Amino acid sequence: MTRKQAKRRKQKAAPRLQMPTIRIGKILAPLFAVGIIVATYQLSLQLLDREISSIEISGPFQRVTALQIEAVISSEIEAGFVGADIDQIQHHIVALPWIDQARVARRWPSRIAITVTEQVPAAVWGDSGLLNTRGELFISKSRHVPAELPRLSGPDTRSGEVATRYLAVREQLIPLGLDVRRVHLDARGSWDMTLGNGIDVRLGRKAVADRTELFLDVVAAIITSRATDIDYVDMRYGNGFTIGWKGGSQTPVSDPEQAEREMLAARGID
After folding, report:
1. What is the 3-state secondary structure (H, E, C) of 180-214?
2. To the nearest 10°, the Cα dihedral for 176, 182, 187, 191?
3. Domains of the chain, CATH where assigned
4. Which of 2, 82, 130, 248 could pair covalently with 121 via S-S, beta carbons 3.0-4.6 A apart?
5. pTM of whole model > 0.85?
């Protein structure tokens, strides 16, 4: 009886867990391979990284010199051919007042090539600020203001809006032989502009887009035929506009469509 019980207890005993055997070599081999790769990479960088032998700067220079560009990137250049941060070099160059864009590239074995594009002033902002062709204020106070540039003014936070309106109006006036000399937006939001022939156009604060469209569709054509006689055009009316003549008289126009028909008839156009 005792033997049977002992045998039964032996059969009921829980099996022992055995931990899997891992060879250390299988762990160390990949680590060793990674270490070799990293070491090879670092060694390659050290072999490639050398002093920058020359800096090639190209672009149409009128406002910025190559010496100015070299001065702002000197600290980055000291890091060597591989160590130099190309993005930082580009950032320093574009931060110069008259630089619009810059491209920087490494040229094997030890040369840095830089191509720059200068800003093109399209209008004067305020007293001496300059706007580029995208309507961006890139210089707030310029020592030299080109006299031939149109003058735009208004709150500094709305310089882009003023520039956009100027460019849109000018684009449609040029085919008619007209141009814009000045666009102003005052602190109350009232718009007015002066054409290249000296005629003032008052747009006011309300429905500026509609008034501008009416001016371009109807009034601009009238101006081309009577430019020497007109002093100003007041568009600040709900159903028309007023032409102010140089003699001091005024002509209110309450029916723009009729005015357009009369103008076309005077030109012999049905």
Report:
1. EEEEEECCCCCEEEEECCCCEEEEECCCHHHHHHH
2. -20
3. 54-118 (3.10.20.310), 121-266 (3.40.50.11690)
4. 130
5. no
